[in-house]
Amino acid sequence: MRLSRITVATLVAASALALTACDPDGSTGSAAPAPASAAPSGAAPAAGSPAASNGAKPGTSSGKPGEGGAKASKPAADCTANAAGVGPVVEATENGYQTHIWFKAKSTKFVCGPDVPNDGHFEAVGEPKVYNVANETKTLLLDENLKAKEVDVFVFMKTQEACLQGKQPAAPYRCFGSQYAVKLDSKGALLSVTQLYRP
Fold first, then answer.
1. What's residue 173's pLDDT?
2. Mean of pLDDT values over 110-117
3. pLDDT grade, residue 198 (50/70/90)?
4. Which of 38, 133, 179, 182 could join 101 in a cystine, given CB atoms 3.0 to 4.6 angstroms apart?
């Protein structure tokens, strides 16, 4: 049985509409949108939880517009809010704990904008500065649930050292980059240093 030209034209038009139907979110592409960073890497943390470093430039994109399958778009309403409440963030470069306990780290700035994946990340700047770790300094590492857990200073330093050398630290701790949230007193002495999550 032969189909009339009108019937064929109607079937072709219906097929074209089906192929260009929008997803529920209004997009026309079939690729799922890249997920936003998990809470530890985007939102400002509550006290005692791992602060977000946003340090990794996530996903397979290089972060340049038009690469990684996504075009540059406006950041969230205020992506600088992702850095709020984290406190100063530093990026460790080396450490030592033989004669006295210290680590060197660069300051960071929060990079934010339409060409930045997932609305922002901390980026190291300047020259490393020495941070002396005193007996009263709180040292915190992330546990298996990504919760900041206070640990012995030597456990902290050995874990940091392993991460800086690209090695696997002793269980149950892992490397999540080399960025840490620090709290300083009015004289600049280190009150606490907390490992940050970076996917």
1. 93
2. 76
3. confident
4. 133
Write the CB contacts of 188 (distance below 8 Å, at least 6 apart in sequence). Answer: none
- Could you tell me which residues are beta bridge partners of residue 148? 142
pTM of the model: 0.60
Q: Radius of gyration over alpha carbons of the chain, in Å?
A: 24
Length of the chain: 199
Each domain of the chain, given as residue ranges in start order, spans 5-195
pLDDT tens per residue across span 7-39:
444 444 444 444 444 444 444 444 433 333 333
Residue 3 vs residues 6, 12, 49, 116: alpha-carbon distances, Å: 8, 12, 67, 53
Q: Choose among 107, 160, 168, 104: nearest CA to 132.
A: 104
Please list the alpha-helical segments (H only) found in the chain: 5-19, 39-42, 153-164
Is the torsion defined by CA of 41, 84, 145, 107 positive or negative? positive
If you search the block for the tokens 């630290």, which residue do you land on? 169
- DSSP 8-state class, residue 41: H
Task: Give residue-wise pLDDT tens across range 127-165.
Answer: 999 999 998 999 999 988 899 999 999 999 999 999 999
Q: Which amino acid is at 48?
A: G
CB–CB of 82/120 below 8 Å? yes
Residue 41, φ and ψ in degrees, nearest 5? -110, 10
